[in-house]
Amino acid sequence: MAKRLVIKVTAGADAPERCSQAFTVAALAVASGVGVSLWLTGESAWFALPGRAAEFELPHAAPLPDLLESVLAAGTVTLCSQCAARREITQADVIDGVRIAGAQIFVSEALADDVQALVY
């Protein structure tokens, strides 16, 4: 089993099941003691902003704010720098604990020896 899991979520409210799956896997991995790096890209970029996760609804799914909070507490949450720029989101706008970083950091995390990478 991988010691770290890098998860890139590209979906948001536009594909709620895929989005929820990514956050659920990230939160479950954190709860299981696995190191997690969750990357918010594409439409999931909006969840880096305060209050946006609370607007997400999917029947029979764990609340997105709870999942995000658990990942923030024990993992890393990163907002894609290009996705942030396209949406005019700055570091000052995001939830405490969310960093903004680019593809170079994602690639270095995803290619580390002890990492399994997933894309949703």
CATH class, anyone? Answer: Alpha Beta
Tally of contiguous helical segments: 4
Average pLDDT rating: 95
Beta-strand residue percentage: 15-25%
Structural class: alpha/beta
CATH architecture: 3-Layer(aba) Sandwich
* Rg result: 13 Å
- Tally of DSSP β-strands: 5
Distance between the termini: 20 Å
Largest sheet: spatial strand order: 4-3-2-1-5
Give the CATH topology.
Hypothetical Protein Ychn, Chain: A
Tell me the overall shape: globular
User: CATH superfamily name?
Assistant: DsrEFH-like
Number of domains: 1
List keywords for this structure.
Hypothetical Protein Ychn, Chain: A, alpha/beta, 4 helices, 120 residues, 5-stranded parallel beta sheet, globular, single chain
Question: If you had to describe this structure to a student in words, what would you say it looks like?
Answer:
There is one protein chain. This protein has 120 residues and is an alpha/beta fold. The chain has one domain: Hypothetical Protein Ychn, Chain: A (3-Layer(aba) Sandwich). The chain is built from 4 helices and 5 strands, in the order βαβαβαβαβ. The protein has helices spanning 16-31, 64-74, 81-86, 103-110; strands at 4-9, 35-40, 76-80, 98-101, 115-119. A 5-stranded parallel sheet has the order 4-3-2-1-5. α3 links the parallel β3 and β4 (98-101). The longest helix is centred in the N-terminal third of the chain and has 16 residues, at 16-31. It is globular.
